[in-house]
Amino acid sequence: MAMSFSASAEFALTDGEVLSSTRNDAFSFWKLPEDWRSELKSQIDSSETVAQTYLLEQYLDDCERRPPKLMRAYYPFKRLIPREVRYYLNSLVIRSRSKRSFPHWPCESELIDFWRTWLSRSLEAVGVKDGWHIGFWPGGAKCSIVLTHDVESPMGFDRMKRMADLEESYGFRSAWNLPLAQYPIDWKVVEELRSRGFEFGAHGLCHDGRLFRNRKIFDELAPTIERIAAEHDMRGFRAPSTLRRAEWIASMAFDHDSSFSDTDPYEPQAGGTCSIFPFFLQNMIELPYTLAQDHTLIEVLKRDPLPVWVTKAHWIASLGGMVLALTHPDYIGASPYLEKYEELLKHLQAIENSWRALPSEVSAWWRARAKLQLETGGNEPHIFRTDGNRSAAAAKPMRLSEEPLAR
Ligand SMILES: [Zn+2]
Questions:
Q1: How far apart (Å, rounded) are the C-alpha atoms in residues 144 and 182?
Q2: Does the pLDDT value for residue 8 go beyond 60?
Q3: Cα(258) to centroid(ligand 1), Å
């Protein structure tokens, strides 16, 4: 794929501007021994420019990294169009788009290839065949599994409990993102699910397509979203309809965001970060969703979601990445799709040595890992922990030769 590596001004990263623990360069991604850092300095600096091009979707034209203009005409009339007609129009628009060759769907490996090539060149530069890094996941887990849902309607809200029961029966907990002004929220139900280990995030105010339309509207709406979310202790965000502007999301008062995909050509704002790992969106942690959305598969593509989910989940697990599902109780919270979801849970449960985590836990882990330092001066690799963070305690040095992504 041909791409230009022009870093956008808003994200130009220079030393001192951004904390070294919030970077997306290849050294920070792999968490290699500090003893190697000075020798690799120039490769480290240039790797961040390349990585950000993918992670911030800078391979897209500027106008494609924001909600499409056509959406403005659509949203005011959205409520007047019957649901079936809306789905038909959506799929027509999506299918009529010129077929993009990048990012590939449902699996895109270009950024993975970049991480891998960068590592092998760096090992060569340091003059070793193998080495250590800090494992991608706590306790030496092979991959992570995160379940998230956006709850679009009172019907979806009523179906949460049944889906939660199902997830619990397979040993999972999940995160539910609620639009904060779209329908009345029964906070007692939220508290009850929280007490069982589930978590809640903010899904904007409503699906009116306005939040990222222009700076004035964003400056009006964002504080309201932040205030309601803070009142209800919601620390994660996902933009309605995943319409997004990276630099504005990064400025919001949330711990983590999940409005980006690794690859999703089927959303109103197509694109993808090509990342099956968390990364830093400035000081926020971005957790891209990496399994295709239920709505896309069922309503737009008219496909059985299960084979796509399972194939992708195994592909991610084989690379040691993060399987992050985005489903809606509104679409799959009842038969016949709830059975498909149960099948997915069975497949995910069978993935060995995986870390089943909530978005807030993955975020805490990725932040903690970023602050750790690996030293290999003596005989054994040693992780320096600068604070007593609980997440950091589970970090483990791993041999690069045993890391699937390094091979
Ligand atoms: Zn939504």
A1: 32
A2: no
A3: 12
pLDDT of residue 391: 74
Examine the pLDDT at 3 and tell me if it is beyond 50. Answer: no
Distance 339 CA to ligand 1 centre (A): 22
How remote is the CA of residue 90 from the centroid of ligand 1, in Å?
A: 15
Residue bearing the bigger pLDDT, 213 or 13 = 213
Instruction: For the domain covering 18-407, report its CATH number.
Output: 3.20.20.370
Structure tokens given for 219: 């400056």
177 CA from centroid of ligand 1 (Å): 8
Please give the single-letter amino acid code of residue 386: T
DSSP type of residue 394: T
Tokens encoding 101: 């060759």
Q: Cα(19) to centroid of ligand 1, in Å?
A: 32
- Ion ligand 1 neighbours (CB, 5 A) are 150
Model confidence, pTM: 0.90
CA of 365 to the centre of ligand 1 (A): 26
In angstroms, what is the span from residue 244 Cα to ligand 1's centroid?
Answer: 12
Helices and strands, number each (H, E), in the chain: 15, 13
Per-residue pLDDT tens digits for 40-89: 999 999 999 999 999 999 999 888 888 887 666 666 666 666 666 666 66
Angle at alpha carbon of residue 73, lines to 69 and 76, rounded to 5°: 130
Sort strands 175-178 and 373-375 into parallel, antiparallel or unpaired.
unpaired
From the CA of 237, how far away is ligand 1's center (Å)?
11
